[in-house]
Amino acid sequence: MSADALPRPSAEAAEHSLALAALIRARIERSGGWIDFAQYMDLALYAPGLGYYVAGSTKLGGTGDFVTAPELTPLFARTLARGIAPLLDEGRGGDLLELGAGSGALACGLLRALDEAGALPRRYGILELSPELRQRQAARIAALPGELASRVHWLESLPDRIDGVVLGNEVLDALPVHLVVWDAEGVRQRGVIVRDGGFAFEDRPVLQGPLRTHAQALPVSAPYVSEINLRASALVDALARRLGRGALLFIDYGFGRAEYYHPQRVHGTLMCHYRHRAHDDVFFLPGLQDITAHVDFTAVAEVGIARGMQLLGYTTQAAYLIDLGITDLLARAQPGTVEYLRQVAPAQKLLSPAEMGELFKVIALGRDVSPPPGFSRGNLSRLL
């Protein structure tokens, strides 16, 4: 979709975007007229008080920019609890840490389902960068029974040690990525400059360092443009170093490396979301739109394994949820009833190959735990 066809913001929202654009321009000027794309994306999403994820705009649901699986149906959390409960049990009642908890829908659904299963975590930690979302989470969790709500606490940073389960649902895709260009001149990094009062791309050679090393090792042939997410690898590394006994569980859209850097994917996977419209103009209204990139799940697995973790499983979201019994849970609402009809369409979106079912993947990495349920149907670990 062309940016020209996107809805116009309110005057207040437009002023907010202009303020962030001015901050980005100042950063570019202080940096000699150029910043790499990862810095631009970081400012657009996380600049204090102005970035998309930390300012006060509504992001989730019908009035926001996109809808996540927990917002679609409570079946998602109830099904996911079936995969998490055994991991908590093996951790002898460990903690559950959710990264980026959105509206709090997933936290509430998991706590209710885990309570029913007799597998409540000792503590349910939430690491949330957005003040607006933290407020929404707190309001939602306050409506839970006291025994459940009392287990929830918010963190400002990662704890020194984690025993239990770390859950990231649509977290890795929102971390700033480097844009890399492979062409006749070799490997170059795509950055951002100011041109005619707006922003534009400019490519520069990639100097020695982790980015160049990673780029040179990738199976691509010029001409090619794609993303490298060093921030996601750093997060997985930090979590793996802190995990005592337990598992990391990530759900996101992405591919194994060979598919991610497929010869036909020559323009990468970068995408923007604004009021439920997807487009590729990363300079459109900075601060008012989401910017994401697909996840290289091979990189996620490599980091965890390098830190002594075991790959417990990797599969599609559809296979994972079906293996955990989402269709059985759906069947508990009598077919033909209003409740059944209310749940069946969202469930189909979670499972459909044309929607979230195949594009979204689930990966689990563990230490001193048995492989959890959810990966016996269509395990794709061989594709990493």
Estimate percent helicity. 25-40%
Portion of residues in beta strands equals 15-25%
Number of helical segments with 4 or more residues: 14
| Shape call | globular
Number of strands: 16
Task: Indicate the CATH topology of the domain at 41-175 and 234-264 and 292-383.
Answer: Rossmann fold
Which series of helices and strands comes N to C?
HEHHHEHEHHEEEEEHEHEHEEEEHEHHHE
Unreliable runs, pLDDT <50, ≥5 residues?
59-64
Mind summarizing the main beta sheet? 8 strands, mixed
Descriptive account of the structure:
With 384 residues, the chain is an alpha/beta fold. 36% of the residues lie in helices and 24% in strands. The chain contains 14 helices and 16 strands. Strands 2, 3, 4, 5, 10, 14, 15 and 16 form an eight-stranded mixed β-sheet that branches. Strands 1, 6, 7, 8 and 9 form a five-stranded antiparallel β-sheet that branches. Strand 6 and strand 7 form a beta hairpin. Helix 4 (75-90) packs across helix 5 (105-116) and helix 9 (230-242) runs parallel beside helix 11. The longest helix has 20 residues, at 11-30. It is globular. The chain starts with 10 loop residues before the first helix and ends in a 17-residue tail after the last strand.
Which structural traits does this protein have?
24% strand; 8-stranded mixed beta sheet; Rossmann fold; 384 residues; 16 strands
